[in-house]
Write a structure and sequence with these properties.
The complex is a heterodimer of chains A (190) and B (75). By secondary structure, chain A is α+β, with helices and mostly antiparallel strands. Chain A has four helices and nine strands. The chains are: A alpha+beta (190), B mainly alpha (75). Chain A binds chain B through residues 1, 3-6, 17, 65-66, 68-69, 72-73, 75-77, 79-80, 83-84, 86-87, 90-91, 93, 104, 106, 109, 112, and chain B through 18, 21-22, 25, 29, 32-33, 35-36, 39-40, 42-47, 50, 53, 57, 60-61, 64-65, 67-68, 70-72, 74-75.
Amino acid sequence: MSETMYETLEGDAIVSLHRKHWLLIIMPLISFVLLALLPLVLLPFAGTTVTLGTGTFALPPLPLASFLFVYSLWLLLIWVKVADTYTNYHLDVWTITGRYLSGIDQRDLFNRHTAVLHLERIQDVTVEIQGPIQTLFNFGDIHVQSAGASREFIMRGIANPNTVREHILRGHDTLLRAQHSSTPSKSTTS
Amino acid sequence: MSNAPLLPLSNVNVADLTWYIYGFAIVVFIGYSLILAYHWIHYAERSESFKIAVALYCIVSAVLVTVLTLSAYAL
């Protein structure tokens, strides 16, 4: 990962990098595709008379240039929103380093939360998989409780949550074992 | 009190209106693209899939802007 832009503290190497499940980006993309096709569904009704209930509406004819102008405008708008959605998905990432668990929660382009948790302070890691979709596609939430922290560190919609939990716990154990071996006179609980 | 319409659309030339809309759309598009590019440059991990996504964004955007421009000329 030589080209990664994620900050690591004091040269701490990234052990693993985790993202939200791909289904969480596919679902909004499908809705964007349907929105993009909507004008094509309405196009055959241009220049016709539509009867809705008791009312009759004469829809104006739509020349090709007008249609292309409006439709390309519509597609450009949707395309920018697609890029926005993909960017928010791509920037939403959790990294496990040798000493830290860090999470970036990109809610929208101007709403970005970054949190860092010391692996040695982790007390409890809980995986929450709810419903048939999450069970079938193997994704869910991971709740990480740390010592002294008033709130949980929550990784939402993460792919393979049980594997990620194993990575976190292994990192925690490795760190504590290393600390214990470097300071044999001190007693460390894990 | 005047009875003049709030938006005198009957006086607006279709070609002028087209170019107003076109100009507004292009300014919004360029502005939004610059904001996206800022995030890509500063925060994104440059994986292969990400590079493909950025290339796809540029190509599709170029096609859409070209179609929009040509149709605006046609109007």
